[in-house]
TrEMBL record:
This is WD-40 repeat-containing protein. It comes from the Bacteria. Residues 261-322 form the Anaphase-promoting complex subunit 4-like WD40 domain. Pfam families: ANAPC4_WD40, WD40.
Amino acid sequence: MPTVAPFDLSGHCIAAVFLDDIPHFALADGTIHRLDHGAKSVQAHDGLLCAALTWDGKALVTGGEDGKVVLTRSDGSTETLAEVPRKWITSVATGPQGAVAYATGRTAFVRFADGKTKSFDHPRSVEGIAFSPKGMRIAVARYNGATLHFPATDGKPAELEWAGAHTGITFSPDGNFLVTTMQENALHGWKLADGRHMRMTGYPAKVKSWSWSAKGKWLASSGAPAAIVWPFSAKDGPMGKAPVELGTRGNMMVTAVACHPGDEIVAIGYADGMILAGRIADLKEVVLRRGGKSAVTSMAWDTKGIRLAFGSEDGDCGVVDITA
């Protein structure tokens, strides 16, 4: 049976991550706590925040209602990367070559490693932002679709249309597909080579958590009484294919998912705080945590895939060691 080291905090956990294999927990009040030879914390923001892990896993980038974009390293040191006075940073993303993207209102910004910043205005508010894994390109989720920009050039952006409010966005690890969460209970995707649509519907609730498998063959998602895992190994992705359902527990909703860094295994967190690990190939399940005080909101594996950090709505956080 895996062992659970609890870490009780006070407040909603936005992101549970490992930085240099040290577990960190970013709370909605702007504090970032870490377990590094004892409990330590740093106040990264004055108020609510959103978060994104750097590509190398060595730092966390957060945006807050204080208008700041802050980088926090594994030793607790912080650096303010950008500041938009009297604005709320609503989304952040990290990209290649040290680039960081962030958004407020209708404007998305890209900050390059040399500190230079470029802005991109949109007709409607920017709801989500993501970097492509290939080349310097960002995608913005907006009302009625998504917009693709190449920040290093002044070329015309590419527009991908689909009616409805798109609230979050992600590229597939191979860069071939773009997927958004929607205000309705659905995901929507595009095959970037030809713009073909991928409708991923049937969720009883909104998708608030998703995670790509190590090699990008699967996209796991929350929003149902099981982890809904879509196949992306074929050239047309999940078009015409049914998803795998992992960890079905009656009507108990899945609230967070995290794919293992090496194996096709998904950590599945539920509304009652329980956490399972499910293997995609044979649907085998193992209990990692029996339950808690509130819904799991965020999970992340360490680089070796033997520890899982988790956070919850009420600060009921901790680390699971699967080797114990």
